[in-house]
Write a structure and sequence with these properties.
Distance between the termini: 86 Å
Number of strands: 12
Mean pLDDT: 92
Strand content: over 45%
Oligomer: single chain
Shape: elongated
Helix content: under 10%
Length: 171
């Protein structure tokens, strides 16, 4: 009876991230970003960082995503970056292939720079696994300027040579 011993090395595979196209939005509305993370290492945890390229809110979103085999559809993952109100939602998990699909939103309060009809922001994503391998991708969002509006309330009749008070709102 003969026995043999061999050494097997299992190498880490770097995760990848792919972002889908983002529809144009008007300022003061949210852009919805969807994408996919792929990593065959189903026990790897991941950090996903999103740079929104938003001159009015420079905070990156940073998500610590648990291992693929522990995730379920609709799991929320809250940003641990300075924008702690941003939540990424897991929209699909394919445990056999290591594919995670996700969705999240970001409010663009103003097109920047001001004075233009629209501006393009380049959204960048970087995913890294717990072995420091990483991948990245980017996509653009067009943020359209919206003309301001003003609305004045009705004024009661006044006598000449007296002051009138105007009230109203603007957006």
């Amino acid at each position: 009876h003969t026995s043999a011993v061999t050494t097997l090395t299992v190498n880490n595979v770097a995760p990848t991230v792919a972002l889908n196209a983002v529809s144009a939005i008007n300022e003061n509305t949210s852009a919805t970003l969807t994408g996919t993370i792929v990593d065959p290492g189903q026990k790897d945890t991941h950090t996903l960082t999103i740079d929104w390229d938003d001159d009015n809110n420079t905070a990156d979103s940073v998500f610590n995503i648990p291992a693929t085999h522990t995730l379920s559809v609709n799991d929320p993952v809250t940003s641990t970056g300075s924008d702690t109100g941003t939540v990424l939602t897991i929209t699909a998990v394919h445990t056999l292939t290591g594919v995670i699909e996700f969705s999240l939103s970001h409010l663009y309060s103003d097109d920047a720079p001001s004075g233009t009809a629209s501006d393009v922001s380049s959204i960048a994503a970087t995913v890294s696994d717990d072995e420091n391998a990483s991948g990245n991708d980017s996509t653009n969002v067009t943020v359209n300027n919206v003309a301001p509006t003003a609305s004045l309330n009705a004024i009661s009749a006044i006598n000449e040579n007296t002051a009138a008070t105007l009230t109203g709102t603007f957006t």
